[in-house]
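task queued by scheduler; priority normal; single chain, no ligands, no partner chains; default sampling; output format set to structure tokens
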Amino acid sequence: MDCLRPAPAAVHPGRGRAGARGRVSAHRAAGEQAYREGRAVAALKGKVALVCGASSGIGAAVVWRFAQEAATVLACGMPLPPFPGALTCDVTDEAQVRAAVAAALERHGRIDVLVNAAGVIVNDDAADIEDSVWSRQHEINLAGTMRTMRAVLPHMLSRGTGSVVNIASVAAFNAGAGSASYGASKAGVVALTRSAAQAYGAQGVRVNALCPGWVDTPMAAKEMQDIARELGITEAQARERTVARIALARMARPEEMAAVCLFLACDESSFITGAALVADGGARMPAAARGI
């Protein structure tokens, strides 16, 4: 999903099936030529992207990938992301969110793409959820996403264009034991995404969610520590148990999630909105189908 866009061939649009076949053939020929020559048009050239939660993990990988695709990227997060011009932004603080959006508009004049990658996970079950844990996860994972969308969407709507990508999780659909608060918060992100997609699609703004499975990030490393401690096993054994449930037999790299995020952000996905795109390496397939 690298959003490669070959230079279009000059063809007459034609009419009917013959014209359609001509357009497809011309597009294929242009694509083959671009592949042979190694040419590609940067997927986000001329776009301005605001990436929240860019301090590490998926968010940081998104900043790097978007920059590679010629986007102008403003990274924000807690702690301060390791990128030039980055801003400290706590998504639980309305004033900081507004300040980050205002800074992006002041520096670059517009925001074409918003990525919400700020997130936190704390394990709990329904019978023993602590109010403070529930509130923290919902404040960051769900309300934080809402705050940035609320700040950016009016600008996108005024321009009649924009793409929002919210990082949710497969836990939104099948939260396992120990994921009560986290799964509920990510299910809320998917619901918020779909509501906004319905509300603003006709006005030119697309809103999608990326739902990763296990990704090899600092957050996942902490999860392995928690699982190991809970089960009385080593972290290596905890990781082995986790990977055994993934069809591709490994965790994703943050860069792989950034590539999916790029697809949802760029014009190659121009007819996709309201999607909750699962990228979990096949972990949600029935266990019997994977021979487990």
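post-processing summary
- The chain has two domains: 1-41, 44-290.
- The longest helix spans residues 131-159.
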